Amino acid sequence: MIGVAVIGLGAIGRLHASNLARHVPGARLAIVVDSLPGLAERVAGELGAEWSTSPEAVLSRPDVSGVAIAAPTPLHAELIETAAAAGKHVFCEKPLGTGLEEVQRAVRAVRAAGLRLQVGFQRRFDPDFVAAKERLDGGAAGRIQLIRIAHRSRTPPHDGELSERLGSIFVDMTVHDFDTARWLVGEVAEVTAFQHARNTITVLRFADGALGLVDNSRHAGYGFDCSVEVVGSDCTLRIGARGHAADVDQLSTLGTLSHIAEDNIERHGSAYLEELRHFVECVDGGREPCVAGEDAIAALRLALRAEQSVRIAASASAS
Question: Same CATH fold, 124-267+301-318 and 2-122+270-290?
Fold first, then answer.
């Protein structure tokens, strides 16, 4: 059994801890960590694990082989480096940090230590996305011409200003979409972005000439939306077009009732589980995760280019 510690017990951290304790073969939830002692103690009691408020103390434990990091984004890169220095394999929520240099340094630290690093881009484990990827790789769509991604949250994840805890909307949200675009279509050559309040539009041009359009909203109101359309020369593939948490419609004389997922945990529940299973399998088998630090660097680099695009546009408008 591979002992895993979970650092950070927000909604995603608690989900990871629960999955590790109950649903991931070969894994044992050794300990949970949070800066709030009451929260850490409560979650540990529910899951039959130990608890602590000190990541450093946890990483020194010999019964911990891996760590799942779900702490606030600004802490990610430093925690990854600390874990690497302690000889621990790392699963870390996206993004790996808010600055490119700190993320590159963290990835190098893990590589130099000969450890595994997996990034929490859970769409790569979502059955709908995996099925679409297999069809694209098999040539079903022909030459890809356009990808459209809609990624919208019902409400912001926290009250008040989000940038200090999560980074910009591009670093926090669009980074998922940049990884999806690279994974499904290929490398991105150009990025142009626009922002209004809690909404953004990002236009992509891929290295092979294909185009991309990503729209994000942190406050869509109606539910969590994660849909993708890939337009090819032979056919078009759509993922999540109806926004369902499950592909079930209720039909009656009053019409059709469709349930839209409330949040990302409901929409991607199985993917969050599968990515942890993959992490434990890679640690156990000495294999490289299918989504690693280099993918996080590439997606963050695109997010920062989008930020720069918005700043340039704002400066030009002001002048």
Answer: no
225 contacts 260 by C-beta, under 8 angstroms: yes
2-122+270-290 has CATH 3.30.930.10 classification: no
Residue 252 has pLDDT above 70, yes or no: no
Q: Is the pLDDT of residue 312 over 70?
A: yes
Q: What are the sequence ranges of the domains in the chain?
A: 2-122+270-290, 124-267+301-318
CATH of domain 124-267+301-318: 3.30.360.10
Q: In angstroms, rounded to a whole number, what is the distance separating the alpha carbons of residues 152 and 155? A: 9
* Mean pLDDT of all residues in 272-290: 97
Burial 39-76 (b: 16+ CB within 10 A, else e): bbbbbbeebebbbbeebeebbebeebbbbbbbbebbbb
Give per-residue pLDDT as tens, 17-54.
Answer: 999 999 999 999 999 999 999 999 999 999 999 999 99
Nearest to 99 by CA among 71, 68, 74, 121: 74
Residue 254, pLDDT above cutoff 80: no
